Amino acid sequence: MTKRSPFKYFKTNPEIIRLAVMLYVRFPLSLRNVEDLLHDPNDIDGDIAETRGRRVARDASENRRIAGVSSHPIHSPKPLMTNHFGTASVPRTSDWFRSMRRLSQTKYREQSQDARMNPFDIIPDTHGQSAKLDAALAGLGWKRSALGWTHPDPDRQIVFLGDFIDRGPDNRAVLKTVRELVDAGKAKAIMGNHELNALHFHTMHPDDGQPLRAHSPKNIRQHRTFLDQFPPGDPQTRDVLDWMRSLPLFLEEDGFRAVHACWIDASLDRLKTLTGDGVLTEEQLIRAADRSEADEMFILAEQITKGPEHRLPDGWSFSDKDGTERDHVRLQWWNTSARTWRDIAISVPSVEDLPDENLPETLSAQTYPATARPVFFGHYWLSGDPVLQAQNALCLDYSAGRDGPLVSYDLSDPAGPLSKDKIRVHPAVS
User: What is the 8-class DSSP label of residue 294?
Assistant: First the structure.
């Protein structure tokens, strides 16, 4: 009676199948290598098998090194292979297998990330509102334990858009949460204008010893809740200021961008040239507070963290929400369809106070291109129901620093278009 071959239903060479089984039984981490061996039905040639077998043996040695396992274990396991494929020995200990499984999970996650971009939660200005931040994180699936922060999706991260301090009652708790997430590699954070203001408030000019940001009643009032918990000169204050110094002014990923207040390509290109990664040196930090308001770094930092402003045509002005008369207007830099001053202005109580005249061409040319990757920002203290500012621009600041809700965006698919359905409005707890 003819003996039936157990391999008759497989296209892959039987020698390759035997090798794959040996690998998977003896070396659990080799699943991906097993898939490689079995993937291509044309790989039946011995030279290819030999090459792959040697690569697996080499990977086994490297994985033992990463896992901290000796090349000469106490136990003497049977060799994985002793033929022309090479030799790879695997120590048969429970600790080693646990290490390999953990390493395997990490390796597969890293390999899967090559095929897709990480999902993100985008969170804007929190301004010391720790209760709102905690509620939002819980609603998004983030949990804090003795072992740190976790999420059901281990690849998920957070992008914080700055302005962690001032206004709200608990600057310390917000900073603790954000720093924990950043230090654990679970989040990325950028600098807001309040962090920049704080650095200037607590930094003295090397020439005259005066603070870079004046300690005026207005500035102290704005900074009061931070000062109550982080008094000048305290070691904890110096520590948190050093952390703020490490924050970049922008973030650019493959599928999106993040900035606190404004992304104008020409300005960001110049900032990249000057800083590389958007983190200011001590000299650049001082220049960004230039009292003459003429330094290039001052202009860039003001625009990126506070938004662009432009002088109105001669003879025009308006009263802001505090009754202050102003002849400069904030601009909707994302509004590519704006044609007049009334179209492009923001934070003006009554646009009828502005000229209904065409914008200068140089101003129209600075708006965010409709073809650029999506950009997320905060800063503008919006109210009402959240909307997309443009098909590729979204402001998430809906006044959480006062009585508004904390709003976030579910960027589970960074390669996809922005959608209003992915905006998350979290309860406005106090």
Answer: -
Pairing relationship of beta strands 345-346 and 375-377 according to DSSP bridges: unpaired
Rounded to 10°, the helix 46-66/94-115 angle is 110
The CA angle 214-218-224, to the nearest 5 degrees, is: 95
Buried b / exposed e over 277-289, threshold 16 CB at 10 Å, is ebebeeebbbbbb
Which DSSP category does 118 fall into? Answer: P
- Please write the tens of the pLDDT for every residue from 125-183: 999 999 999 999 999 999 999 889 999 999 999 999 999 999 999 999 999 999 999 99
First vs last Cα of the chain: how many Å apart?
82
DSSP 225-274: HHHHHS-TT-HHHHHHHHHHHT--SEEE-SS-EEESS---HHHHHHHHHH
Polymer length of the chain = 430
- Under the phi-then-psi rule, with left for phi > 0, alpha for psi from -120 to 50, and beta for the rest, what region is 192? beta
Whether the pTM exceeds 0.70: the reply is: yes
Cβ within 8 Å of residue 161, ≥6 positions away = 122, 123, 124, 125, 190, 192, 258, 259, 260, 376, 377, 378, 379, 396, 397
Give 395's DSSP letter: E
The CA radius of gyration of the chain, in Å to the nearest whole number, is 29
Q: Where are the domains of the chain?
A: 14-114, 117-308+366-425
Angle separating helix axes 14-26 and 46-66, nearest 10 degrees: 10
Beta carbons within 8 Å of 116's beta carbon, 6+ residues apart:
415
Angle CA(379)–CA(380)–CA(382) in degrees, nearest 5?
Answer: 130
29 CB-near residues (< 8 Å, 6+ apart):
59, 60, 63, 100, 101, 103, 104, 107
Report domain 117-308+366-425's class: alpha beta
CA distance 164 to 130: 9
List, for the chain, all residue ranges whose pLDDT scores fall below the cut of 50.
Answer: 29-30, 32, 37, 40-52, 56, 64, 66-67, 69-94, 96-97, 101, 104, 108, 111-115
Query: Which residues are CB-contacts of 259 (< 8 A; sequence separation ≥ 6)?
Result: 161, 190, 249, 250, 251, 268, 304, 375, 376, 377
